[in-house]
């Protein structure tokens, strides 16, 4: 416990390893995204997430849970051990936050003719 920075460094090394040594199944992943697995057993599903997720506090908490469950020695895609519904909820929150940030950042472009 308490090795947050060291753990994150190891995690980034893991990401780098995945990026450079990806198997054929990861060729469908767009640039700037990573494939992860969510859930366990029968429920497990594959998701493609933007790398910006990895800096978000909610996603970092999921990664911390994955580290506690599996360590950083996972082979292949990173597996997040939460339920798929929980991940979709977190994914929705992150996406809303990013789209709100994007709208606020460029909001002067969105007001044309909308004051009627």
- Report on the biggest sheet: 3 strands, mixed
Low-confidence stretches: 1-5, 19-24, 107-116
N-to-C CA distance: 57 Å
Strand content: 5-15%
| Mass-distribution shape | globular
Helical content (DSSP H or I, runs of 4+): 40-55%
What is the succession of H and E elements? HEEHEH
Strand order of the largest sheet: 2-1-3
Residue-averaged pLDDT, rounded?
76
Task: Give the helix/strand class.
Answer: alpha+beta
Radius of gyration: 17 Å
Number of helical regions:
3
Number of strands: 3
Topology record:
Elements: H1 4-20, E1 33-38, E2 45-50, H2 57-70, E3 78-80, H3 84-105
Parallel strand pairs: 1-3
Antiparallel strand pairs: 1-2
Structure description:
The chain is an alpha+beta fold. It has helices at residues 4-20, 57-70, 84-105, and strands at 33-38, 45-50, 78-80. A 3-stranded mixed β-sheet has the order 2-1-3. A hairpin with a 6-residue loop joins strand 1 and strand 2 (45-50). The protein is globular and about 40 Å long. The N and C termini lie far apart (57 Å). Residues 1-5, 19-24 and 107-116 have low confidence and may be disordered.
Short structural summary:
With 116 residues, this protein is of the alpha+beta class. It is built from three helices and three strands, in the order αββαβα.
């Amino acid at each position: 416990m308490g090795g947050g920075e060291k753990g994150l460094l190891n995690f980034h090394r893991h990401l780098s390893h995945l990026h450079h040594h990806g198997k054929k199944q990861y060729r469908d992943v767009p640039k700037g995204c990573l494939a992860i697995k969510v859930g366990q057993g029968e429920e497990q599903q594959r998701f493609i997430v933007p790398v910006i997720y990895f800096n978000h506090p909610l996603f970092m908490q999921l990664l911390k849970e994955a580290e506690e469950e599996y360590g950083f020695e996972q082979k292949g895609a990173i597996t997040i051990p939460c339920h798929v519904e929980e991940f979709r909820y977190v994914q929705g929150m992150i996406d809303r936050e990013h789209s709100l940030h994007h709208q606020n950042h460029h909001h002067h472009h969105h007001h044309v003719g909308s004051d009627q």
